[in-house]
Amino acid sequence: MNSLDGRNFDNTYSRLPEHFYTRLDPTPLEKPRLVTYSASAGQLLNLEDAHETREKLTRICSGNSAWPGSEPLAMVYSGHQFGSYNPQLGDGRGLLLGELVNIQGEKWDLHLKGAGQTPYSRFGDGRAVLRSCIREYLASEALHHLGIPTTRALCVVTSDTPVYRETTEAGSTLLRLARSHIRFGHFEYYFYNKRYEALKELADYTIEQHFQDLEGMEAMAGSDAGYQLFYSEVVRRTATLIARWQAAGFAHGVMNTDNMSIIGDTFDYGPYGFMDDFNWHYICNHSDHSGRYAFSQQPEIGYWNCGRLGQALIPLFENSELIQNALDQYPQIYTQTYTRLMLDKLGLVEEEEEDAELVRDLLQLLHDSHCDYTLFFRTLSSFPLDQTNEQLEQLANHPSLAPWLDTYKERLKRNPLDDQARQKRMKLVNPKYILRNYLAQQAIEKAEKGDYQEIENLMKVLMSPYDEHPDFEHYAEQPPEWGKKLEVSCSS
Ligand code: AMP
Ligand code: MG
């Protein structure tokens, strides 16, 4: 069965009271064209990878026909942007089309980004441009295939409808898939408006939809213990997610609380960046002048954001100390997860006390030598350690490399793997291919001229980033100088 026939929707959000959203249809785009479609994401919806599917999606994603069974609506939420509370944020340009249930019984939100103005658009035009849709499409599929929790992307459609940014661009849409589109900012909206009944309704709905399987939840639902269990799980997932970003060298760029998913997905891709050269102070968002969302700040900001969510949940609790107790777990969960991931990257099976120092010293070396983060780990995974490796020496050209390698080799003597097994294991967690900024930029520039092939080529490596792709070796190389200096801002 093809889900596009629309028999299998369960639109639970649209059954909530009307103060949670406004119902409205997408505003049509003119002369729509499909830019790209992810058959891998399409499988989640049991879509056939067929010409007819693509035709139908093009009409649906341009607002020119409805997905049968959908009930489009703009969700209401607010949030903290760059540390300040903004009482009204969205949905300004996206619509939740509905919740599709696939053959496996999984429910997937369909969210159309760039669907036109809503009552919450403020001064915005409700649109998205082609470059930002391609960036979200590539990144969400890239993170997913790296094993990092994320929303997915089904397709991108562009059109002849003009959209005015610094220049005139093509109005485009992205169809996003996620198990939930509820953000921290949804809870903040009802808290700051002192609508505590609605806040409770939202929390109970969220728990019922997404946290019911937590051990003990059924018996505790609606009590302090139940809300604490829910909040603890959000804290745990957030800390874990950010540890994964740090290990992958990924910076989100706009960690406002409206861009934080309640189920712990990487959410709302804007001026994100994968690091090329390792740099603690990497700032991927050109508009982030203070460096609030710099790479090194992400774990701390994740904690702060969880704190804002905790604050918004206070009215649910009789004993609000339970919130702080749950939040206090964040640093430990983060550190444990991050350390484990980094030891995996180094091929170390068991953890020893000095390992954290080994990791810290390595990162300092990578920082000081402006070394390519991804290439370093992949190279370290690719040669026997009893040989000297010129490639490694070129990558991390620094006096600290030799002493660090000596310490690492000593440490490996206590590792229960022979060198081949170490390499094999490391290659499973150290990607050869990441979505480098300049690669995304090249694909965008071609797509803006109507050539979409580069997106497809790039997707081939991003969908199996740990494998070798002899035809696409060039995607694994260090960026050219111009590619390191690209600037990406919030304008999208
Ligand atoms: P972002 O920084 O992209 O997460 O956007 C923050 C909020 O502004 C979101 O809730 C969007 O819905 C809204 N927004 C962003 N761009 C536009 C736009 N062009 N028109 C209307 N609303 C927008
Ligand atoms: Mg957002």
Offer a concise description of the structure.
The protein is 41% helix and 14% strand. With 492 residues, the chain is of the alpha+beta class.
Report the biggest beta sheet as strand number plus sense, adding barrel if it closes: 6 strands, antiparallel
Ions and ligands = adenosine monophosphate, magnesium ion
Number of helices: 18
Secondary structure class reads alpha+beta
| Helix proportion range | 40-55%
Distance between the termini: 36 Å
Structural description of this entry:
With 492 residues, the chain is of the alpha+beta class. The protein contains 18 helices and 12 strands. It has helices at residues 39-44, 51-61, 130-146, 184-192, 196-211, 217-220, 224-248, 298-313, 321-327, 330-345, 355-368, 373-380, 390-395, 401-412, 419-427, 437-448, 453-462, 481-484; strands at residues 21-23, 33-37, 73-75, 77-81, 84-90, 94-101, 107-113, 128-129, 152-164, 168-178, 250-251, 273-274. The strands form 4 sheets. Strands 2, 6, 7, 8, 9 and 10 form a 6-stranded antiparallel β-sheet that branches. A two-stranded antiparallel sheet has the order 1-3. A two-stranded antiparallel ribbon has the order 4-5. Helix 4 (184-192) runs antiparallel to helix 5 (196-211), helix 7 (224-248) runs antiparallel to helix 8 (298-313) and helix 7 packs parallel to helix 10. The protein is globular. The mean pLDDT is 96. The structure holds adenosine monophosphate (AMP) and magnesium ion (MG). Magnesium ion binds next to loops.
Comma- or semicolon-separated keywords:
492 residues; alpha+beta; 6-stranded antiparallel beta sheet; two-stranded antiparallel ribbon; 18 helices; binds adenosine monophosphate; binds magnesium ion
